[in-house]
Design goal:
The protein is mainly alpha-helical. It has one domain: Rossmann fold. Helices cover 63% and strands 10% of the residues. A 3-stranded parallel β-sheet has the order 1-4-5. A two-stranded parallel sheet has the order 2-3. Helix 7 links the parallel strand 4 and strand 5. Helix 1 packs across helix 2.
């Protein structure tokens, strides 16, 4: 079974926010690793840097968060996974055409669901309601 988490879930695993307790409990209770893609790397890095910009994180917080994330990569809690982006973008286009008018998903929400489908994930982890709806509509099991 492949588990795909969106970036907001991952950020909650490494910096303190309203979802941190649930995210960490779920992460540490998992028996299979989470997929880690170049999209995650960009979005998580950007979220950490935006935290500094907004004054909710310090540079030391971000350094500690990255150290913990890299530890999870070394311990295979997160597994680096390559995405074939051209077919993933085609899938994302179909998801947008079929669901955005009714669900209201944003481009990055759609890309995460398309990426999850591309790596044959069976479980999608997110706190975002619209993204969860899209994942369900595309046939993924949604948690937590």
């Amino acid at each position: 079974m492949r588990h795909y988490a969106d970036s907001s879930f991952l950020v909650s695993c490494y910096v303190l926010d309203a979802n941190t307790a649930l995210a960490k409990a779920y992460l540490f209770g998992m028996t299979a690793p989470l997929v880690w893609t170049s999209l995650h790397a960009l979005e998580v890095r950007n979220a950490f840097e935006l935290g500094i910009f907004r004054g909710v994180l310090t540079a030391a917080d971000v350094t500690a968060a990255w150290a913990n994330l890299e530890k999870d990569l070394r311990q295979s809690r997160l597994i680096r996974t390559t995405i074939k982006w051209p077919p993933t973008f085609r899938r994302a286009g179909r998801l947008s055409e079929n669901h955005s008018a009714t669900i209201g998903t944003r481009s990055l929400d759609i890309l995460h669901v398309a990426a999850a489908k591309s790596v044959r994930a069976t479980e999608f982890i997110s706190f975002d309601g619209r993204q969860r709806s899209l994942a369900l509509a595309s046939g993924l099991k949604v948690v937590p």
